[in-house]
Amino acid sequence: MSAYNIVSIAGSDPSGGAGIQADLKAFSAHGAFGMTVVAALTAQSTRGVTGVHPIPADFVAHQMDTLFSDATVHAVKVGMLGTAEVTEAVAEAIGRHGLPHVVVDPVMVAKSGDRLLEPSAVDALRTRLLPRADLVTPNLPEAADLLGEPEAADLAAMHEQALRLLEFGPRAVLLKGGHLAGEDCVDILVAQGSAPVEFRSPRVRTRNTHGTGCTLSSSIAALLPQRPDTASAVGDAKAYLTEALRRADEIDAGGGQGPVHHFHAWWK
Ligand SMILES: Nc1ncnc2c1ncn2[C@@H]1O[C@H](COP(=O)(O)OP(=O)(O)O)[C@@H](O)[C@H]1O
Ligand SMILES: Cc1ncc(COP(=O)(O)OP(=O)(O)O)c(N)n1
Question: What range(s) does the Pyridoxamine kinase/Phosphomethylpyrimidine kinase domain occupy (predicted)?
Answer without folding.
Answer: 13-261
